[in-house]
Design goal:
The chain is of the alpha/beta class. It has 14 helices and 28 strands. The strands form six sheets. The protein has a nine-stranded mixed sheet with strand order 15-14-16-17-22-21-20-18-19, with helices on both faces. A five-stranded mixed sheet has the order 4-3-2-5-6, sandwiched between helices. The chain has a five-stranded mixed sheet with strand order 23-27-26-24-25, with no helix packed on it.
């Protein structure tokens, strides 16, 4: 018998001898020992003990109190018994699909109403989105009703399989049933039917309940931003899921409200797509709206977020007037470029200083100003050239570079370069197309970070922190003509590289960081207040499950659906439902019972209560009460 308290067990065992003595009865003596005197003495002692005990136990109150003491000892020991019980269907896990397609007509409202009909004594509610959300665990019927009153569909894609797995975990001990309520038009992850079969093989009851019917829709299913000639442009894709072609009126406006200031018409064939382009996007939020009447509104709007770079003041110092880097920086969106042939007396007004001296070394006084400027939060980029050779460069300049220059060398057969560390700066750079014929031989300094290097490990793109600012070294010189060091400046992604580098140094980040798709999950550097399209919350982990603008710190992040399958409201999901109800023989790999621990405390309390009543009746019958 299982006991939880060994001390209580010892107390119970100490009572057992009293019970044994009480049960003794006079028996005929059996003489099997030679000493008759010893036997007679033993018999007299037994009779004396028995007579004394008989006098004690003649009072029934003693027996009652003794029994109560035994029951108290058993209760303190935490006694229980085990039994095989059938897996119970009392615990119900309700899985609600909260994907974007559930916003069609009244699908989600119907799903909630259906779920309400499956509520049992013990309930758990799982909201199926890109990541399952456990809204209620083991709650009562009234608690389930409260959850149903506040849940709403999101704008992502549901991982139904992961939600079913969550339900399996919740029911792993006692069993139960899982009710999946969805339109089953689209999902992420594994096939929901496979997950259903797996759950059923473990003795769980899983039911798929379909809501909704095919509906009409026209929506924006894709969109991307490009930097062209120093300006941002946006290309959007519109799809018509209807059975007839449509002329779609598209309006564009500034800000989150998106009051259309411009509009145009786009012809979209039945069941097909067409795309449009917006040029010269200004910093801030641009809203695109489809003026259509359909059954899904969440994909009728798209948002574009362009970070404000108007504060970028770039100083370009060079003794060479024809450099592609200067041209690329002059095309930088919403920034001002100032050209100088030497470092000015003050650098306080600049957010970035680029030093591209070809032959003229930077004098020591200028080096001190640059170092102080960076230590106070400025950013500097040094482009490799003969002017950085150790025999021409001031010692102070060598010390602040993230690499240690050795000298200019020539590679007759050319050198290949490779990406050493992934970065948003170099993600569009095709390093396998870069060939280096001349370079500044250098070694990486301790504490610096190298993004791109030659096949021999010579750093080409490196940076490190100096005080509050950053010094970036570009070993890919962009000199033109027969004396060109490499071909990087001839590649089409060269201007984009400079745009990303300036944005990165300015703390703006890549444009893709400001434009996301629903379902994205990110961890913030710290717990902070976030304003979503519908509410304000404080978190350090954020799921982007709404279409609209999220405000995090000083960033405005545009989030869009952009999902062809989720926007396809014409799917009826009959094929999946057919597979879900197919009978494929016994798949049971787990018994349909589980070992239950049954506590007897309540039974003991009942017996003791009856014994107390009996004791009171005996005392009252004697006239002692």
């Amino acid at each position: 018998m299982p006991f939880q308290n060994p001390l209580a067990l010892a107390a119970l065992l100490s009572i057992i001898p009293l019970i044994i003595i009480y049960m003794l009865r006079p028996k005929p003596a059996v003489f099997s020992i030679p000493s008759l005197m010893f036997v007679l003495k033993l018999e007299r002692e037994r009779k004396r003990v028995y007579a004394s005990l008989t006098k004690i136990v003649q009072d029934p109150l003693f027996l009652i109190q003794l029994l109560m003491l035994i029951l108290l000892s058993i209760g303190a020991a935490g006694y229980y018994y085990t039994s095989n019980e059938p897996l119970s269907g009392e615990h119900t896990v309700l899985i609600l699909d909260t994907s974007a397609s559930m916003q069609v007509e009244s699908r989600f409202e119907d799903a909630v109403e259906i779920a309400d009909g499956y509520v049992s004594k013990k309930n758990s509610i799982v909201l199926a989105s890109s990541t399952p959300l456990l809204a209620l665990e083991g709650g009562s019927a009234s608690e389930a009703e409260e959850i149903f009153g506040i849940v709403k569909p999101g704008a992502g894609t549901a991982d139904l399989s992961a939600a079913i797995t969550t339900g399996m975990r919740l029911l792993s001990d006692e069993g139960g049933r899982v009710i999946v309520i969805s339109d089953f038009t689209n999902w992420n992850g594994d096939d929901p039917v496979a997950s259903k079969n797996l759950a059923e093989s473990y003795g769980l009851e899983v039911n798929f309940v379909k809501v909704g019917k095919p509906a009409d829709n026209i929506g924006i299913i894709n969109g991307w931003i490009e930097a062209t000639d120093g300006e941002y442009s946006y290309t959007g894709v519109v799809k018509n899921y209807k059975g007839e072609s449509a002329n779609v009126e598209i309006g564009t406006g500034r800000g989150i409200s998106g009051n259309a200031s411009k509009s145009f018409t786009l012809s979209v064939p039945a069941g097909s797509t067409n795309q449009f382009t917006l040029e010269n996007l200004n910093p801030g939020i641009t809203t695109i709206s489809l003026n259509v009447k359909d059954d899904l509104s969440v994909d009728n709007k798209a948002y574009i977020s362009i970070p404000d770079t108007s504060g970028q003041q770039v100083l370009y110092v060079t003794d060479n007037g024809k450099l592609p880097s200067k041209t690329a920086l002059s095309l930088l969106p919403n920034s001002d470029l100032e050209l100088r042939d030497s470092v000015p007396a003050s650098l306080d007004n600049y957010t970035l200083v680029v030093l591209a001296q070809k032959e003229t070394p930077i004098v020591n006084g200028s080096v001190e100003r640059i170092e102080n400027y960076v230590r106070n939060g400025g950013n500097a980029v040094f482009i490799a050239s003969e002017a950085l050779e150790p025999n021409k460069t001031e010692v102070g300049l060598v010390k602040i570079l993230p690499v240690k220059p050795v000298g200019v060398e020539v590679a007759e057969d050319g050198l290949e370069v490779e990406e050493v560390l992934q970065s948003s700066i170099t993600e569009d750079v095709k390093t396998d197309e870069i060939s280096v014929r001349k370079y500044l031989n250098a070694t990486e300094r301790t504490g610096s970070t190298t993004l791109v290097a030659t096949e021999d490990g010579i750093p080409m793109l490196s940076y490190w922190q100096v005080g509050k600012g950053t010094i970036f070294y570009m070993g890919l010189n962009d000199e033109l003509g027969d004396e060109a060091w490499n071909n990087f400046h001839n590649l089409p992604e060269y201007p984009v590289f400079w745009i990303k580098l300036v944005e990165w140094l300015g703390g703006i980040g890549d444009i893709s960081e400001y434009n996301l798709e629903t379902g994205a999950l990110t961890s913030l550097a710290k717990t902070e207040e976030v304003r979503t399209p519908s509410k304000t919350l404080t978190t350090n982990r954020l799921l982007f499950d709404e279409v609209g603008i999220y405000e995090i710190s000083d960033k405005e992040i545009a989030v869009n659906l952009y999902d062809d399958r989720e926007s396809n409201t014409t799917v009826d999901a009959s094929e999946l439902i057919s597979r879900a109800v197919e009978k494929d023989g016994s798949r049971l790999v787990r018994a349909d019972t589980y070992i239950a621990k049954n506590d007897i405390t309540n039974y003991l309390i009942g017996i003791m209560f009856l014994l107390m009543l009996l004791e009171i009746l005996i005392v009252r019958g004697r006239g002692e009460l």
